[in-house]
Amino acid sequence: MSVSTIWVNLGQRSYPIYIGRGLLRRLGSYLRARGLGGKFIIFSHPEVLELYGETIRSSLTRKNVVEVSVPSGEKSKGLKTIEKVYEALAEAKATKEATLIALGGGVVGDLAGFVAATYMRGINLVNVPTTLLSQVDSSIGGKAALNLKTIKNLIGVFYQPKLVLIDIDTLATLPEIELHSGMAEVVKYGAALDLAFFKWMEEKWVDVLNLEKTTLLKTIKMCCLIKARIVEEDERDEKGIRALLNFGHTIGHAIEILAQDGITHGQAVSIGMVCEAEISRNMGILRNSDFERLHNLLSSIGLPVRVPKVDVEGVIERISFDKKNLGGKSRFILLKSIGRAFLSSNVPQSIVKEVLRRRAG
Ligand SMILES: NC(=O)c1ccc[n+]([C@@H]2O[C@H](COP(=O)([O-])OP(=O)(O)OC[C@H]3O[C@@H](n4cnc5c(N)ncnc54)[C@H](O)[C@@H]3O)[C@@H](O)[C@H]2O)c1
């Protein structure tokens, strides 16, 4: 099967995203083609290394390979883990020419991005995403964030990888819940930015969940293309364009952190999208039929659409830490219609509370 290449065009920081099947075993040649040498550090979780470590190791065919792994789970995404990774790199005598290979989902990707940006003020980063969520979203665009206790993604950097290698065969071992979780970010692209893609997902979501290869490849390619073009326009999230990709995330992040590992990132984003669409509808901006369409697609996929047992005041408090906020005002991504998101600073807190209470339980 052929390999698709999408470039993220950012001048000197430009990089390719390769998408296809059986690509893991060719990682070594992709690295060589990009001129990446030095020490290779495979950074992952133990269970992902168990599955794919050997394929990667044999593709690198070098002695200069070190493995560093950290436990799975959102709790790993903090400064304590980062310190341990720095120590492992120093112990392995990694220098500025080293290449950090992030093999795993968004947690590995965020940790790796932070480490690569800061260890010796920057080493090479290569993303090899192995969850649907990381293949369609987190491995692209150079954002890396860590949690501070109960505040999600509070600390972060922008740091672009040298290349992204997406091997869709890795999704065969992904637990079902994680596949569903990734679907939330897939639906997000359509809901926020692309009506035609949303319509297509309404027809094809079953095929994606069944890992039907042609549909899966097309879906991942479409998402990567949308994200690449947005990142090119607003790399550092300063123009209100990249912020649109945060549809569902203002409320989603608050719920995710309060649920304390009881919910995946994608599940929280699904609830967040339904709440933020409902806010849009209650403010008279979004038609009820569009709200219903989004609600129906997410629930058909099996994603949650109701707020779990969390304290509504707690959610409101966490929202006040959202990075989109300006001048003390909370900012939300709302929908005018499916495919047309916009940034708003004029959301009455009473409507947010009313929606959270109505959606609770
Ligand atoms: N930086 C960004 O732009 C960005 C964007 C979206 C999300 N995120 C972050 O990504 C994180 C969520 O990422 P995620 O959904 O990938 O979850 P994750 O990284 O926690 O991975 C989910 C689970 O799947 C396992 N796993 C990974 N690949 C596997 C495979 N192929 N087979 C079997 N098991 C596998 C992992 O060990 C883990 O237990 C959140 O922390 C979120 O904030 C970051």
Report on the structure:
- This protein is an alpha/beta fold.
- It has two domains: 4-173, Rossmann fold (3-Layer(aba) Sandwich), CATH 3.40.50; 176-358, Dehydroquinate synthase-like - alpha domain (Dehydroquinate synthase-like, alpha domain), CATH 1.20.1090.10.
- It contains 13 helices and eleven strands.
- The strands form three sheets. The chain has a seven-stranded mixed β-sheet with strand order 1-2-9-6-5-3-4, with helices on both faces.
- The chain is globular.
- The mean pLDDT is 95.
- The structure holds nicotinamide-adenine-dinucleotide (NAD).
- Nicotinamide-adenine-dinucleotide (NAD) binds next to helix 2, helix 4, helix 5, strand 7 and helix 6.
Query: Could you give a short account of the major beta sheet?
Result: 7 strands, mixed
Shape: globular
Oligomerization: single chain
Number of domains: 2
Highest CATH level, the class of the largest domain: Mainly Alpha
Euclidean distance between termini CA atoms: 46 Å
Q: Strand portion, in percent?
A: 15-25%
Question: What is this entry, summarized?
Answer:
By secondary structure, the chain is an alpha/beta fold. It folds into 2 domains: 4-173, Rossmann fold (3-Layer(aba) Sandwich), CATH 3.40.50.1970; 176-358, Up-down Bundle (Dehydroquinate synthase-like, alpha domain), CATH 1.20.1090.
Tags for this entry?
361 residues, alpha/beta, Rossmann fold, Dehydroquinate synthase-like, alpha domain, two-stranded antiparallel ribbon, binds nicotinamide-adenine-dinucleotide
